[in-house]
Description:
The protein is of the alpha+beta class and 61 residues long. The chain has a domain of 33 residues. Helix content is 11%, strand content 13%. The protein is rod-shaped.
Amino acid sequence: MAVPKRRTSRARRDRRRAHDALKTPTLGVCPRCGEPKLPHRVCSGCGTYRERQVLSVDDGD
């Protein structure tokens, strides 16, 4: 069984974890309704993708 020969120092551990932070998602703006949306996803506000109606979105009234 593999066992580390030496203890990992705080500096080495933290350098390894430097890239583990979560990044904020990049949001685009829907050209039809103007709501923020993730790229390459259907707009949840109006249901369009690449200027085409893909989903029928209920207003919730």
